[in-house]
Amino acid sequence: MRYYSVVTDADIYRGFVTEKKKNSCLITFEDKDKDIIFGLFRTQFFKEYPQYVGDEGILGQFCVNVVEENGDMFTLSLSDGEYTKAGRCSLSQFRKKFASYDASLSEYKEKTALIKSRYAEGTIEYERSRIPRYKSFRYFDAETGIEIPCRFSIGKANVRKPLFIYLHGAGSLGTDNLKQFVEYKTVGISLKEDCFVLLPQCSGFTGENLKDIKTYVAALKRLIKTLARTYPLDEDRMYVTGISFGGACTWYSVYDNPGFYAAAMPLMGYMPDAYSDYFEKDRFKDEKIWAAHAADDKVVPIDGDKLIYGKIKDVCDIKFSAYEKGGHKMMHRFYLSEDWQKWMFAQRRNSKSEK
């Protein structure tokens, strides 16, 4: 076997530099890119290695053993000086992830420069659309330099009423302002309340990692505040829900913005900070949350949501629906069969939960 080491706080990450004499290789990358690398192995190691998660110390040292029998798999072993555990990941997937990341990072930097040169403050632009009920907009966030395509519906009339926000999964990342609308149809079919509906689309500007999620939810809050200046949103009745990647964004929408939303429903979510010693559970104080997950979910394991629930159940009003079956498509069962609308639209900001 060949042995590889991953070194933190290095200057570059763009490739594998083979040291032939030692039959080894160093993979180096910038410290700011820790999230994307750790994200590759999230499902295997989050629950086992809390010390590697969070803004202060996601990675220690990785020792990677390449399995030469099939030439495409390697074993990732994490060592903290006391014990070592291993998991598997495709080597070609690992390389592809870095190539994709490098390209998207370059594109993101170009877009950021363009947006900052054009807009001194957050701006919403209207676009022509063939979907009349869900108008097409693009929000340019000057503070983060990101662009958020979004669909927005005023419902039956432009009068004061709640805002419902749906955050899509990783499969709908992009800038077409359509995929997230198509994904939303399961929710849209069941949504009976007359409310404003916001369907933002995350571009995946530097990849699906913690830094992106936190940047996205910060920009999303400013988007909502911008909409509130034009439309009569009931700011005491703003609700956020999402699935998978959107479930993570839902968790962080509440964690990073305590008291902003009246209620939140993260489905099949995850929250890296929950595994860290730096996790601040009191940020959830007085929040109203309904989380749901399936035990047989192989894409995003239920353990993450169970951990969060266990940590915050004593500080906030939260309920957790754990299904035995449903996999990574359990959201259909939840949105179509649970009485979530009665619960959600009964909640008010800064008030006790109405069960």
What does this molecule look like?
With 355 residues, this protein is α/β, with parallel strands linked by helices. It has two domains: 99 residues, no CATH class; 225 residues, Alpha/Beta hydrolase fold, catalytic domain (Rossmann fold, 3-Layer(aba) Sandwich), CATH 3.40.50.1820. Helices cover 29% and strands 28% of the residues. The protein is built from ten helices and 15 strands. The strands form two sheets. The chain has a nine-stranded mixed sheet with strand order 7-8-9-11-10-12-13-14-15, sandwiched between helices. Helix 6 crosses helix 7. The longest helix is centred in the N-terminal third of the chain and has 28 residues. The radius of gyration is 21 Å and the shape is globular. The N terminus is likely disordered.
